[in-house]
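Incident review: delayed structure delivery

Summary: a single-chain prediction request sat in the queue longer than the usual turnaround. Root cause was a stuck worker, restarted by the on-call engineer. No data loss occurred. The affected request and its eventual output are reproduced below so the record is complete for anyone auditing the incident later.

Affected input:
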Amino acid sequence: MTTVPPRTPPPAPAPGPDRRITEFTSSRTRMLLAGDGLTTVLLEAAARAPLHVRITHVARLSAHALDDPAPRTALELEAGRPCLLRRTRLVTPAGVPVSANVVVAAAGRYAEVGAVVASPHPIV
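Output delivered after worker restart:
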């Protein structure tokens, strides 16, 4: 008598693109925003120049002080909870900004993440 192992269900379909990305009319912008890990490479190709990180702001602040409530919601931060904010720009060798980036992390949740976000050095 042979036994058949239980059937493994297929993996859940990958989520579609973020609704906010689909609102951009430029296909180039949608491609850059939806890219996973290729954004800098694609921006360098579009700018036809190597890009470098310029850190413009690093701070520890209360979550209610964030300009945008979306990170608070995504990270499940209570309004008074401390968080880390890091703003950077990708710039050409001439210093022309090509991309502005914002990273928010819950302060104290993961020591490794906090150390990287609060660092004055580029994340590589």
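Verification: The chain has a mean pLDDT of 82.
Action items: add queue-age alerting; document worker restart procedure.
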